[in-house]
User: What shape does this take?
Amino acid sequence: MTFRRALAIIMSFVVIGGGAIAAKSQALEDQRAELVAQADSLQTQIASAGARGGYIESLIAHHEDEKADLDAVLAVRPDFVAEVAALSDALEKAKGKIDTAAHLAAAIATQDAVLVERADPVVVTNATATIHALTEKVSGELGTWEAAQRRTPAAAGPLWSSSGPDGYARVRAALDRVGGGGVGLYESASCAGGSAPACANSNGYIKYRADVAGWNESRLNWAMAHELGHIYQFKVWGTLNSSSAYQSMFGGDPEFLANCMALVRGYPGSVGCDGDQQIWASAIWVGAVR
Assistant: This one.
């Protein structure tokens, strides 16, 4: 073999070998690019999974916080429920004896606030205190009413005679309805010698004639509101009678003033009052003489 032929064979191998190496290098580069792409995709997926994981973790933490808040609220609810039960009992005992409409409305509003509360136990504990205070108020007013029923003035005699217990209960309910819970009441024919159907005493009680128990509800309500107005007049009697406005606006007539006082409480009688008289009369209910 000549040197030239040997060199040609060697170069042929080199060319063939070089082409194989080049092809293999390209294949490796393609694989590398694919692996890089896969790595990028995997990194993207990991990042996405990490973000989802972070979101899930924060969501779990949020729900755990919500659960902790709700657990705290639920922990103080039994005390609230117990107070509501006590108030319900007090309201039942006071039924037909004192006016509990405002107390009931306050209790319902407080209960509604508790029913929607999910996070703050202080809202429930404050509501519990409110219900407890309402129970004490109702019980106190009921106690005053019961004491008034037991306190019979010397000249009073029995609470009723001819009107009977049902008649008395009807008049009593009307007096309570117009705001007279705790004001003493009994049947008597002594008001103006029997000519007046009802009258108020400066000692703080009201008398009614037996036939009053048969009046229709609106007339009965007006009569009790009128007499209750006199009870409040007695509380400011001296100042009232020395008031020039009382003399000029009402002619110094306590009956006319009592009619206006009943009217401003929503129980009109047969005698009307103008706007200025109503405003002036309303102040007597709160112990003010203008």
